Hints:
Order of helices and strands: HHHHHHHHEEHEHEE
Helix content: 40-55%
Keywords: Hydrolase, Metal-binding, Metalloprotease, Protease, Zinc
Oligomer: single chain
Structural class: alpha+beta
CATH class of the largest domain: Alpha Beta
Strand order of the largest sheet: 2-1-3-4-5
Family: Belongs to the UPF0758 family.
Distance between the termini: 51 Å
Protein name: DNA repair protein RadC
Number of helices: 10
Amino acid sequence: MSDADESQADQPAPGKKPKLHYHGHRDRLRQRFERDLGASFEDYELLELLLFRLLPRRDTKPIAKQMIARFGSFSQALAAPAHLLQEIDGIGPTAAMDLKIMHAAAKRYAKDALPERPILNSWDALLDYCKSEMAFEDKEQFRLLFLDKRNKLIADEVQQIGTVDHTPVYPREVIKRCLELSATAMILVHNHPSGDPTPSNADIQMTRAIADIAKPLGITLHDHIIIAKDGHSSLRALKLF
């Protein structure tokens, strides 16, 4: 139904108090959700549903659309830092904090789902999890996913937090932690706050150094993933190690 159709549908009967134009739209959106639990929803529509409860006296459609335009997707909107969320007209400190609580719940769900099956068979879920954790961080983080011989997750650890464009990484410390956890494989993940996921020469050299130390010890480096607001890159897919 178009916005114009919704406006006509929400016109009050003669003699009745006018109804705010978005109330009928909210009812219809909830009914649609009941039919397919949001499977047919655009990102902004699902975001609208969340905002209904946070902003009961506001028309949330334009706010949801602003958030998608600014951050790119539903998951990226939830992942955005609170101070950036508050730059959206209509989102104040309380609504921003409530959205971050929803984001924390989503991250916990995604993280809990990872150990249930081999990471390499859940690559899309892994990328979604890494993006939700790191895409909007304003400093570089170096994350390690340690895997067992069945490629199930043993541990997920942030080893280093650096500056806006650099994180110190010590290959021997990475391998030491693998041995402590009895991990037989690992995936490296770090973010680029600049938004460009292209690996730097330093990223490539560090990855090769870790792979060279790990191999004689029977530890497999599956990949090094770089996460950014504008996408991700895989050094394995790019054949850089």
